[in-house]
Design the sequence.
């Protein structure tokens, strides 16, 4: 472990923590200051905090992993979500800020009704706590993954460190500490990611090398739309717009808006937000592309791309900066979410303690512990440690709960309690059912979630009072206007879908990229796994256990086989009157058998000793496609990688079994005795490094 890396990480983390703790000197010991910073936050600081809070560990871990998988089609997430965020900042945030300031509320859940603590507000608060806890768990998981890759620490240990820091941030200065820390690390985040982006582009040969590297792996990685979308490309893109709009349904981001005093402050914060968010999104996209070119193994975890890329391309000081940025971003976002949960719980679920500062902090501690438990539990559930999936579920769940209600209330419609609760419950069930069904792989659950909420609104409006416009102060358009609008929208959509159906890319799974002629050079190496000397009795099978964890850096090795060398001699003893006759005591050769096994890979081989000297034989097992070494034609680059990069199949426990069958030999008047043999063994992992060039 590099001490410089650890020192750099601790230095930057200490600096971030110092910024947050400094807020203690200006805070006021009130619940209002704890949760909304007294509504007097500087717009630039609030905006920088919103950038960091919105992106967090999701951008460093989840988004990079998704970019790694999707290739160029990731551009639609950036464009769609950015447009949705502009709409949220320009209209919905204005409504949120004005309503919150006029009513003095501190939580998003309070805005679903005109009365704080109403039944619908309680429901919104409970749902907020549940989804934000999942969201916070994703942040803790991100930090744990980063520490695991860069320092080799257990993910559980990283999660627990995150829990301690989250509680420390919250107790130190509440949302003020969170915002100050966010603003500081947002600046460092941009600097560190810009440096990594520059170095990564140099590593892959610039933009041309980036493009050719992606194309050589899979042609679909350079397509601007993905393959085999069951619901078409238009709805797929629209889901990302709704995802961006869902930022207005994220209590941890909305809380930043609530810290602003005036509408002018909101506009200033909006400008700062997009000045920082736009280049950061572009930089992270390029890093995701570069990581796909550098790490092309079939069993590589895409969500480890950024920390692994930093380890490969940067010096230890800068790696420490990147690690600190990732960890600080995840922890600072997690504490924002915990504080948002606290505001929702104290203001709407238990308003009786809303002004009790000490009890508010106890609620904060309980919620942080709950999120930590979810994060640790997810490590032991298949797919439960996917940062991207956890964030998608939380973002679109919260967006579907809040955004439709905020839109109709912004339009002037006043839904009653049953109306509001029906919209929220239908939205959340739609999101969960859509995610469970597997359709979320084609369309993110923002479409069914928000769609179901708006449909419920229209139905409830008709049941409640059909003479009231479902658009509030806006009248419904007449049928002719609706028909014309439908044609204006449907005509280009139909054209896009037809084009996609006719000329869209083939499946990523079925297309391994363009076939060609390649020169593949392989460099084989070996790493000692175990050695020793054992006496094996006749007829006995001796089992020796070993594990690749004993080999330093084994997780970074491409282990394609194992080799066992067995050495042995002959140690028979002779007795009898006739042993002095030449050749009378000659031994018969013994048979020594070695078997090595690892998971489904195993091999066995036998050899025999001789009367004098050392004898030996090899037991060798390999599990790669050796025909892909040398001049290779008619296959894609990704096919070659799949054949040579065996992932984790060569790691884990091994068992070496040695057995001996003796033959005594001798002659009349000279008897031989042999109870077994002393066998020396050496077990080596066979490793393979390779290069692929166009022939």
Sequence:
């Amino acid at each position: 472990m590099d001490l410089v890396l650890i020192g750099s990480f601790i230095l930057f983390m200490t600096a971030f923590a110092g910024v947050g703790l400094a807020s203690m000197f200006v805070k006021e010991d009130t619940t209002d200051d704890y949760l909304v910073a007294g509504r007097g936050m500087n717009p630039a600081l609030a905006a920088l905090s919103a950038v960091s809070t919105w992106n967090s560990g999701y951008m460093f871990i989840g988004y990079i992993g998704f970019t790694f998988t999707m290739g160029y089609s990731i551009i639609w997430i950036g464009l769609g979500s950015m447009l949705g965020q502009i709409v949220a900042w320009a209209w919905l945030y204005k409504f949120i800020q004005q309503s919150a300031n006029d009513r003095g509320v501190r939580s998003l859940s309070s805005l679903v009704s005109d009365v704080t603590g109403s039944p619908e507000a309680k429901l919104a608060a409970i749902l907020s706590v549940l989804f934000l806890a999942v969201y916070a768990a994703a942040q803790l998981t991100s930090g744990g993954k980063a520490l695991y890759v860069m320092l080799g620490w257990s993910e559980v240990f990283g999660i627990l460190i995150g829990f301690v820091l989250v509680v420390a941030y919250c107790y130190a200065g509440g949302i003020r500490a969170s915002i100050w820390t966010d603003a500081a690390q947002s600046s460092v985040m941009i600097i560190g990611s810009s440096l990594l982006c520059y170095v990564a582009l140099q590593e892959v040969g610039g933009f041309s090398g980036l493009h050719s590297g992606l194309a050589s792996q899979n042609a679909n990685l350079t397509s601007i739309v993905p393959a085999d979308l069951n619901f078409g490309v238009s709805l797929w893109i629209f889901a990302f717009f709704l995802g961006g709009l869902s930022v207005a349904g994220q209590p941890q981001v909305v809380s930043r808006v609530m810290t602003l005093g005036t509408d002018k402050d909101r506009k200033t914060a909006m400008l700062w937000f997009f000045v920082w968010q736009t280049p950061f999104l572009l930089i992270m996209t390029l890093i995701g592309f570069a990581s796909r070119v550098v790490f092309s193994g079939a069993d590589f975890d895409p969500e480890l791309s950024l920390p692994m890329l930093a380890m490969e391309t940067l010096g230890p000081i800068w790696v420490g900066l990147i690690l600190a940025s990732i960890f600080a971003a995840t922890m600072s976002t997690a504490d924002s979410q915990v504080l948002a949960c606290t505001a929702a719980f104290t203001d709407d679920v238990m308003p009786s303690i809303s002004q009790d500062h000490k009890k508010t902090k106890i609620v904060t501690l309980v919620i942080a512990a709950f999120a930590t438990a979810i994060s640790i539990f997810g490590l032991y559930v298949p797919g439960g440690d996917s940062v991207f999936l956890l964030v998608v579920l939380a973002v679109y769940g919260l967006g579907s709960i809040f955004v439709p209600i905020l839109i109709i209330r912004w339009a002037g419609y006043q839904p009653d309690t049953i109306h509001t609760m029906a919209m929220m419950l239908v939205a959340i069930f739609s999101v969960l059912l859509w995610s469970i069904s597997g359709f979320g792989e084609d369309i993110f659950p923002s479409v069914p979630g928000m769609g179901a909420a708006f449909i419920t609104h229209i139905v409830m409006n008709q049941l409640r009072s059909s003479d009231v416009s479902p658009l509030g102060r806006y009248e419904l358009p007449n049928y002719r206007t609706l028909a014309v609008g439908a044609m204006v929208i449907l005509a280009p959509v139909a054209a896009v879908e037809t084009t996609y159906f006719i000329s869209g890319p083939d499946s990523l799974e079925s297309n391994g990229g363009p076939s060609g002629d390649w020169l593949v050079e392989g460099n084989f190496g070996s790493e000692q796994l175990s050695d020793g000397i054992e006496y094996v009795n006749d007829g006995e099978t001796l089992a020796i256990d070993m594990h690749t964890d004993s080999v330093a850096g084994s997780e970074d090795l491409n282990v394609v086989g194992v080799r066992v060398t067995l050495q042995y001699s002959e140690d028979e003893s002779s007795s009898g009157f006739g042993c002095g006759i030449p050749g009378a005591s000659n031994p018969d050769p013994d048979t020594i058998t070695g078997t090595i096994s690892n998971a489904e890979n195993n091999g066995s081989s036998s050899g025999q000793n001789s009367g004098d000297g050392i004898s030996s034989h090899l037991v060798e097992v390999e599990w790669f496609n050796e025909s892909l070494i040398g001049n290779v034609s008619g296959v894609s680059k990704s096919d070659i990688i799949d054949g040579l990069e065996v992932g984790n199949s060569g790691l884990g426990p091994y068992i070496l079994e040695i057995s001996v069958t003796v033959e005594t030999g001798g002659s009349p008047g000279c008897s031989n005795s042999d109870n077994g043999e002393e066998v020396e063994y050496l077990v080596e992992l066979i490793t393979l490094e390779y290069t692929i060039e166009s022939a």
User: Anything to note?
Assistant: Residues 406-474 form one domain. Residues 508-513 have pLDDT under 50 and may be disordered. The chain has three domains: 3-378, 406-474, 515-694. The radius of gyration is 32 Å.
